[in-house]
């Protein structure tokens, strides 16, 4: 399997090369040159498989023999053993044909654990085998950071640098990162927002001259292909548990960096019958504005009750545009780089194709809290604000109530006290392994919103 850049000016890579990087050298994102496709009968034969074994079948073609099958199987089994629910990704029914897929049973209580438990182990395997050291650099709006630290911190060959926007993540999210001990763990609060953190990360990938000569940067954000690859699996899992592939399923996906819904788009492209894919955003609704009005323009990034989705520049949208523009890398580059200066528009046929595939909705904080309250009143099930946005969008955008509608429940409500309390509900207890989280010592540095401040800091710690 070869991976190529969406900007068309970087050499093609194999799996291990994309695993050990982030952005391509031309600033683009890596995508498979061609996608594996599974037949209906092959997908049907996977019904009833445990999560890790299903993951093996979905992921194997992307790794293409570069990691021996028995090693991959062991790594997958260990990755999903860390989850507290035996089903790994249990489905919960909200109404007649309405479901949520609980993706927060991993160690850090958000869907990021699905990919980062795996990514950490894959990196550990490759780096130990090759006796190589790397610096992991990631930006987080709250959840990727702790999942990356939890997934990678045991690897002696990795130094971890995680940027979060200062005072813009919830207290539980911040403490999940800043209370992790270890000389290889470096938390940086940037005086800016998530887009600033992500911009700094991308700039650092573009010029790695600040690193010691024996080091390279590796991404833990969804710009790293391995993140997306792991997230494809739970679309197959949900579908197989709801009668797929013999009947289609629809998904509503709380969306920020467009990684999760892009994984759903790929599952569909690989042969999974998916009816609707709904982009559910908060007030930072650039993607909703594009789908509904063909207006792709930056606004000011707002702080909302769903802070993990306070994102304006959605990295992975570029991967989808690459397909939408029939893999015309120049057109992608022009569209994506143009966004910084002027609003962009899709051509009418492109916009139509995007709207045929995606529905969308932007949801404000008041509605988010109302939905948390409503779902709790109807089912005694407490959902987090990101999931609430997904549930609301699922209800508003559903085009066919005979098709099962699954909202991805992307995080545990215990991470978001503000939203739970504003919804008028009792804040749940922290799970056992985080019981003393609020008493643990924190360790982080606050830096200016400036690339050099961050790269100088990294240089001083490596
Ligand atoms: C809880 C939660 N929900 C939804 C999202 C959005 O996912 P994506 O960035 O893949 O669109 C995020 C952040 O990525 C998140 O942390
Ligand atoms: N919501 C994320 C933001 C980063 O997204 P990623 O999927 O690209 O890592 C977070 O919580 O950190």
UniProtKB/TrEMBL annotation:
What range(s) does the Threonine synthase N-terminal domain occupy? 2-80
Q: Which reaction does it catalyse?
A: O-phospho-L-homoserine + H2O = L-threonine + phosphate
Alphabetical list of InterPro entries matching this protein: Ser/Thr_deHydtase_PyrdxlP-BS, Thr_synth_N, Thr_synth_N_sf, Thr_synthase-like, Threonine_Synthase, TrpB-like_PALP, TrpB-like_PALP_sf
Q: In which pathway does it act?
A: Amino-acid biosynthesis; L-threonine biosynthesis; L-threonine from L-aspartate: step 5/5
Enzyme class, spelled out: lyase
Q: What molecular function does GO assign, one term?
A: threonine synthase activity
Q: Does the keyword Lyase apply?
A: yes
Keyword entries, A-Z: Amino-acid biosynthesis, Lyase, Pyridoxal phosphate, Threonine biosynthesis
Write down the required cofactor(s): pyridoxal 5'-phosphate
Domain annotation Tryptophan synthase beta chain-like PALP: ranges: 92-330
Which N-terminal stretch is annotated as signal sequence? none
* Residues carrying N6-(pyridoxal phosphate)lysine: 112
What are the GO BP annotations of this UniProt entry?
threonine biosynthetic process
Q: What's its EC?
A: 4.2.3.1
Name the NCBIfam families for this protein: thrC
Could you say which protein family the record assigns here? Belongs to the threonine synthase family.
Under what name is this protein listed? Threonine synthase
- Organism for this UniProt entry: Pseudohongiella acticola
């Amino acid at each position: 399997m070869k991976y190529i850049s969406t900007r068309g000016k970087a050499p093609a890579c194999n799996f291990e090369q994309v695993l050990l990087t982030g952005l391509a050298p031309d600033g683009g994102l890596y995508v498979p040159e061609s996608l594996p496709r599974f037949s209906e009968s092959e997908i049907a034969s996977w019904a009833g498989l445990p999560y890790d074994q299903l993951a093996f079948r979905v992921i194997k073609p992307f790794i293409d023999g570069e990691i021996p099958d028995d090693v991959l199987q062991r790594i997958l089994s260990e990755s999903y053993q860390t989850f507290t629910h035996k089903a790994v990704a249990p489905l919960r029914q909200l109404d007649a044909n309405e479901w949520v897929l609980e993706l927060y049973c991993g160690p850090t209580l958000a869907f990021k654990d699905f990919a980062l438990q795996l990514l950490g182990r894959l990196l550990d395997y490759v780096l130990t085998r090759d006796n190589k050291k790397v610096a992991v650099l990631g930006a987080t709006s709250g959840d990727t950071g702790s999942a990356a630290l939890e997934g990678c911190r045991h690897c002696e060959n990795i130094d971890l640098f995680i940027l979060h926007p200062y005072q813009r993540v919830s207290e539980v999210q911040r403490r999940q990162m800043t209370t992790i001990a270890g000389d290889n763990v470096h938390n940086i609060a940037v005086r800016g927002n998530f887009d600033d953190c992500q911009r700094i990360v991308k700039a650092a990938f573009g010029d790695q001259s600040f690193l010691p000569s024996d080091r390279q940067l590796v991404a833990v954000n969804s710009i790293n292909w391995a993140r997306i690859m792991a997230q494809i699996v739970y679309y197959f899992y949900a579908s197989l548990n709801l009668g797929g592939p013999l009947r289609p399923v629809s998904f509503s996906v709380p969306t920020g960096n467009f990684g999760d819904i892009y994984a759903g788009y790929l599952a569909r492209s690989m042969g999974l019958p998916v009816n609707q894919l709904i982009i559910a955003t908060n007030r930072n609704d650039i993607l909703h504005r594009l789908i509904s009005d063909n207006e792709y323009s930056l606004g000011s990034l707002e702080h909302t009750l769903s802070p993990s989705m306070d994102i304006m520049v959605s990295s992975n949208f570029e991967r989808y545009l690459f397909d939408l523009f029939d893999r015309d890398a120049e057109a992608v580059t022009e569209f994506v780089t143009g966004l910084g200066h002027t609003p962009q528009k899709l051509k009418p046929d492109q916009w139509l194709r995007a709207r045929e595939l995606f529905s969308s909705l932007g949801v404000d904080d008041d509605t988010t809290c109302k939905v948390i309250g409503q779902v709790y009143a109807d089912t005694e099930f407490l959902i987090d604000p990101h999931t609430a946005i997904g549930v609301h969008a699922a209800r508003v955008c559903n085009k066919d109530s005979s098709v099962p509608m699954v909202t991805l429940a992307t995080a545990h409500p215990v991470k978001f006290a503000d939203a739970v309390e504003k919804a008028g509900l009792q804040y749940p207890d922290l799970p056992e392994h985080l019981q003393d989280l609020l008493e643990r010592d924190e360790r982080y540095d606050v830096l200016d919103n400036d690339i050099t401040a961050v790269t100088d800091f990294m240089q001083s710690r490596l």
